[in-house]
Amino acid sequence: MGAGDGRGGRGGPDGTETAGLAEVIGRIREELEAAQHDGSRSRLQFRVERVNVEFSVQVRREGTGKGGLNIGVVTAEVGGTAARENLHRIEIELMPHDRDEPPEGRGFSIGGEE
Questions:
Q1: CA–CA separation, 104 vs 15, rounded Å?
Q2: φ, ψ (nearest 5 deg) of residue 54
Q3: Which helix (H) or strand (E) holds 5?
Q4: Each residue of 44-67: b (16+ CB within 10 Å) or e?
Q5: Is the pTM value of this prediction over 0.90?
Q6: β-bridge partners, 74
Q7: Residues 84-93 pLDDT 10s
Q8: 38 half-sphere exposure, CB direction, 13 A CA radius
Q9: Which of 111, 15, 95, 93 is closest to 58 using CA atoms?
Q10: Most Cβ neighbours (<10 Å): which of 23, 42, 69, 72?
Q11: Which of these, 22, 1, 2, 10, lies nearest to 70 by C-alpha position?
Q12: pLDDT in tens, 72-88
């Protein structure tokens, strides 16, 4: 995942650095797994029921004509400020579950087999 895989994640013409949404969600997953592992022997435990994340995303068309649409999560603004009209906000609610225990109710799993 990353800049060259077609999932977002590159610098824009206005100096805004972006990452692909899949890359960002993957990183959130890694951080939650690391926290779970690090706290596994601690007496104090936390239950994660929902993970609410809000992103600023930049939507732009690559190339001309029928070029691909690129959606990138804004990670940094290098040497300038991204134009506000180019930024959009999205909210995603993630409900963590063990891969061997399918989630109840509506929705779908991101990653792994269903």
A1: 42
A2: -125, 135
A3: none
A4: eeeeeeeeeeebbbbebeeeeeee
A5: no
A6: 18
A7: 557 788 888 8
A8: 6
A9: 15
A10: 72
A11: 10
A12: 888 765 555 555 557 78
